[in-house]
Amino acid sequence: MAIVKMNKISIVGLNSEKSLIINDIMDLGVVEISSQDAKLTDPEWLPYVRKDGNEDKVLSYDVKISKVGEVISCLEKYDTTKRPLFSTRRNITDKEFHNKLLQGFNAEENVTRILELNKLLNELSSEENKAEAVIMSLRPWAGYDIPLEFSETRYTFIITGIVPSGIEIGKLKNDLDQQTDRCYFKLTGSDKDQHYISIIGLKREKEEVLEVLKQYGFNNVAFKDLEGTAAENIVHYEEKIKEIADEKEEIEKKIKEAVTYKQDIQILYDRMVIERDKVKILGNILKTDSTFYIEGWVPERSINELEKVLNTYRCWYEASEPAKGEQYPVLLHNNRLVEPLEAVTELYSLPSSSNVDPTSSMWFFFILFFGMMLGDVGYGLILVLVCGIAVKKYKVEGTFGKMLKTLFYAGISTMFWGVMFGSWFGDGVTAGAKVFFDADFVIKPLWLNPLDEPMTVLILSFAFGLIHLFVGLGVKAYMLIRDGMILDAIFDVGFWYLFIIGPVMLLLGGSLATAGKYITIVGAVGLILTQGREKKGIISKLFGGIMSLYGITGYLSDVLSYSRLLALGLATGVISSVLSIIGSMGGHSFLGAILFIVVFIFGHLLNFAINALGSFVHSARLQYVEYFGKFYEGGGEAFNPLMKKTKYIKIVKEEN
């Protein structure tokens, strides 16, 4: 339950050294610089300070970063080198990074050149698309042998257009012939949507012809900016597309050659992000003509490191604990075993700084419940191998890296429960032995088979649930005692412990029943006398206490929620058993073996994917709803220190 203790830090320094101080603070990566906008409206501060920063410069950096990012995306399209399954930052020493910065001019030159090449490529692609669109529009008119720019002569008109495909062309032609015998009609093409027609007639009869065409849903088609016949234009644009393809090939060749500069350009990108962040953070700083003022948060354990930097520049500074009730940024700190489960906590919400980190108290239950719901040696082995290799080989960072480690631990738990339940791809191993070797090979469960004894597993699920809830109540008690409210811990947790444990002992019977009866009575009386203590008047207090006993139904509902441990475990096992039955239908034969392999691979992959996801979701739900509901208060703001937040490289200290 480790939320790192924070100190508020105030710093005053000289403007002449501000850039160097900000750079060193960024290298430390332990100071969150808070916004000081509130002080700009404070009469005590307003006459003396003004806001630092340069928004135009930040915007300029953002534009440059966007352009460099566009170049990197362009190069990645043409990068034929083998890419890792998971993208990770590559390590580079601070000395190497500094040396690369000295070569930054060349990288910027390459960015400008590649941007121009990419721009030309996009323009050519646009021209190519337009040419293809023109060809597609002209294909139906390939049989129309009159130049497209001609729309009339001295005495005649020429009309080109379309009518719906459902129109009977013969009837249309007959109606035109009845209107005038001095009209030439031609069907140049048809498709599933429409007919393409052309008509030549006398100008003095044009209105009569259009009136007939109007009855058939005619729409005029004009060929703007095109000269010559449709066939000639098709040939022209096909040649143009070939020319464009040659030009694109030449440009793409130059871009492919520039792929060798990708890593340097990625360093340029990260450098610009760092520089942008340095300028951007100035907006959270106040200044006078000669000094600047910083206020923020620093982990208490990092104060000494920060002091060394500030003393170097003869800054004035003051570190103080947060005021009582003051919220501060949240940074979680757990050991290597528990740390991956922080990803599960973060998926819900970070705790407030006055709360506790639930990660260390829930990690065992999350892993336990996940494994119990999936409960299969084969499925657990898949999780262990996939996640273990991903973490070891690709050094995945951040939330995704934590999630992979969490699933690795969950895989171990899944294998454990698989051994306990005797589930090795369900009974796939037994079925496979029968199909391939016609042998009876059974792996017996170390404990029991849930399909045979579901009630035993259900009782175990309820027992785990009760323990889980009791731990949640215990965390609540810890928080109350920590805050000096010992009596509240006894009233709001201790009496509930008694009122829940007592009935459980009564159900167990035997010698425990008598003790359980008295424990229940003590718990009930305690709740009646204390749960209405906030109300006024004795009657109201007693009534509030009596009504609080209804809360036992909430605990009963919470315990029943843990039946999902059995339900999902049975779902996984039943589907696995069905797959074994289907896969074994071919019997001990060659075709039977083929059928078994196909059903085994695809069936179990699908079953694994569905139930692994279900196990994660429902294990998380038991934490978020049942467990967190007993004590957890979220809404914390993550600690966001000023540091070098790079995307492609990880700057590490050079080893001596």
How would you describe what is shown here?
It contains 21 helices and twelve strands. The mean pLDDT is 94. Helices cover 58% and strands 10% of the residues. Among the domains are: 150-222, Alpha-Beta Plaits (2-Layer Sandwich), CATH 3.30.70.2750; 339-436 and 457-630, no CATH class. The two termini are 36 Å apart. The strands form three sheets. Strands 1, 2, 3, 9, 10 and 11 form a six-stranded antiparallel beta sheet that branches. A four-stranded antiparallel beta sheet has the order 6-7-5-8, with helices on one face. Strands 4-12 form a two-stranded parallel ribbon. The radius of gyration is 38 Å and the shape is extended. The protein is an alpha+beta fold and 656 residues long. Helix 16 runs antiparallel to helix 17. It has helices at residues 18-28, 55-78, 94-102, 104-138, 169-179, 206-214, 230-257, 262-281, 303-312, 342-348, 359-374, 377-394, 398-421, 428-437, 454-482, 486-508, 511-530, 538-548, 552-561, 564-583, 590-627; strands at 6-14, 32-33, 50-51, 90-93, 156-164, 183-190, 194-202, 219-220, 286-287, 291-299, 316-320, 649-652. The longest helix is centred in the C-terminal third of the chain and has 38 residues, at 590-627.
Identify the notable features of this structure and list them briefly.
12 strands; 656 residues; 4-stranded antiparallel beta sheet; alpha+beta; 6-stranded antiparallel beta sheet; 21 helices; extended; Alpha-Beta Plaits
